[in-house]
Amino acid sequence: MSTSTPSVFSKIVAREIPATVVAEDDRVIAIEDIAPKAPVHVLVIPKTEQYANVAQLAAGDPDLLAHLVATAQRIADERAGGQFRLVFNTGEAAGQTVFHVHAHVLAGELQEGTLA
Ligand code: 5GP
């Protein structure tokens, strides 16, 4: 669920923190990851921070999850010939550091030893 302070991604949506925006509409924003782990490493983020992880998003707003995946595909079509990894780190032990759901779109050779 959302926390009382805005997440780093909400601050990016609000233009309070700079980011390289690669796609945006009324429901999602896509940005270059600040610490890329692959030649293409884009984060696709619902503008709402209501959902902490992909399971919550799937249960609460499956249409928004489908839209997020379609946005990821479009970015991969434009940047990586349509082939990509889609990673949702879920939980601290799985490497999640920002508890505002986001998909990592990764293409090209990954840095060794990491999935994002
Ligand atoms: P997680 O570890 O939660 O799956 O992914 C969070 C991702 O957000 C990390 O890959 C990290 O590099 C990225 N990130 C964290 N803070 C910022 C930021 O301020 N700007 C951008 N563009 N990416 C960020």
UniProtKB/TrEMBL annotation:
It comes from the Bacteria. A motif (Histidine triad motif) lies at residues 100-104. Pfam families: HIT. CDD domains: PKCI_related. Residues 8-115 form the HIT domain. InterPro entries: Histidine_triad_HIT, HIT-like, HIT-like_sf. This is Histidine triad nucleotide-binding protein.
